[in-house]
Structure prediction request, 258 residues.
Amino acid sequence: HLEEKVNIDSNDEFKEVAEAFNIMILKLDQVDTQRKDFVANVSHELRTPLTSIKILSESLISGEDFNVDVYKEFLTDIDSEVDRLNNIITDLLTLVDLDKEKLTLDLKITYMNFLLERIYLRLKPLAEKKSIDLELVLNEKIQLKVDNEKIQQAIINIIDNAIKYTQTGGKVKLKLYNEGKYAIIEIKDNGIGIPEENIQNIFERFYRVDKARSRDTGGTGLGLSIAWQIVSLHQGTIEVESKVGVGSTFYIKLPITT
Ligand code: ADP
Prediction:
C-alpha cells in the first residue's frame, strides 16, 4: 500500500489532507500485515498438532506386530493432540466473538467478592493437583458493573497461568482491593517469572516465552490476549511485574462506575 502514498510538496490545506491520507494508508497497511501474520500463525498452530497426529496414525497403520501397550501409547498421544486442537479452536472462536461483541457487553452490577470466591473454589482443585497453595484475600466489598462471564474468563486465564508457570509446592495469592477509581484484582505467584524483554509481548496472540513449556502444559498462547481484550472492553488495563526465578504479579485494573 505504501507506494500509494501522496507526495506532499505544498504548504496549504492540501498538505493537511494529504498528510491525513498518508497516515490512514499507513494504518491500513499495519492492519493488513497484522491480519496476514495472524492467519499465518493460526495455520502454523493448527498444523503442528495435525502433523503429529498424521505421523502417529501412519506409524500405527504401517507398523507390524505392535503390542497393545504401543497402540495405547500412540493413541494417548493422538488423543492429547486432538485436545490441543480443540483448545486452540475454542480460544480462536472466543477471540472472534470478542471482536464481534465490542458493543454488546452484558453489563450487570456484580459483587466482585462473590465472583472471586467462585473462581477460587473452581480453581482450587487444579492448584491442589500441583500442591500449590492457592490463597484468596478479600478485605473490601467491591461492586462493579461488568460482564460477569467475560470478566470471570479473564481472571481465570491469568490464575490458570499463575498455576501453570509455578513449580509444584509453590504459592499463588489472589487479592481484591480499591485503589482510587479502580478496583484491582491482584494475582501473585512465586513461579518461573518472565524475562523483562518479553513482558511487552506476552499479550500478543500466540506469543509464548517458552513454546515447549507452554505446549507441555496445554497452553494455546491465546489466554492472555483474550484476557487483555476482555479487560480493555471494560475500559480497564492489565499490568505485570515479574522477575525470573522469583515470580510474577498481574494486576487487573477495572474502573469503578456506578
Ligand atoms: P499460554 O497458553 O502459552 O499460557 P498465554 O497467552 O496465557 O499463553 O501466555 C503467554 C505467555 O506468557 C506464556 O506462554 C508464558 O510464557 C508467559 N506467562 C504468562 N503468565 C505467566 C506467569 N504467571 N508466569 C510466567 N510466565 C507467564
Remarks:
- The mean pLDDT is 91.
- The chain is about 55% helix and 20% strand.
